[in-house]
């Protein structure tokens, strides 16, 4: 419990002063009389009324104490609390083209990217994060949200073949920027992950980068794939799966230009461990500290004390003028 006006508690000092003045006055009003015998005087009765002659000062003191507490305005909850949190808006733009099924990552590029990105999401509970996927075209799989359970479920649902095959890097980036352009966050970030070069879509990657720069969106680009050749699963005409050695062709120059244009950074991941380390590095780089004042509803609880003060005053008045009339001073 808190008190909005604790200064009123200084008035409690007046209660012992009032009681002390009452005791001094009582002694001044009393006198002594010495007699030889008590014969002729009425025998004192065992009535409790004389014993209650000081009830008046007790009730008045209780009333004053309750009134002072009411004036101090007791409140039943904390009024505010200052905290500091870290939160930004992030869109993960993931390539889901056929080449992402190559198994130079375990179990493959697409699944490895999903698993590591989900770990990244779980480590940033204060951020709004969304998901864009692209192949021959792009679309928003999940808009910016703080509900990361929903985001993770939708992330788990992405797979190759959802849209026409191809690698529309520019379209994927433009869709991600479109989701961030109206954000009021202090920091807006796109993490773009791909394993190829732009060969589809109506927006060139560098044009999308200029759009991102215009809206103050920082882009981290990640090239995924080993050096040289990667094993790619191909259905066998005799049943089962065979593997072909597929050349890894990542347009690192364009990805680097996208990053430098927007104030981000280009990374190259050649295996699961390096991709995980890249996400951890981005996690450390993107920390925006935000001071937050959390307000909590305050409940005023002075009324019981005010009513108690009124009750004690009324009780003292009624008893003094009825039951204890003549016994109280």
TrEMBL record:
Residues 89-282 form the VWFA domain. It holds the Pfam family BatA. The chain crosses the membrane at residues 7-24, 301-319. This is VWA domain-containing protein. Keywords: Cell membrane, Membrane, Transmembrane, Transmembrane helix. InterPro entries: Aerotolerance_reg_N (IPR024163), UPF0353/GerABKA_families (IPR050768), vWA_BatA_type (IPR033881), VWF_A (IPR002035), vWFA_dom_sf (IPR036465). Gene3D superfamilies: von Willebrand factor, type A domain. It comes from the Bacteria.
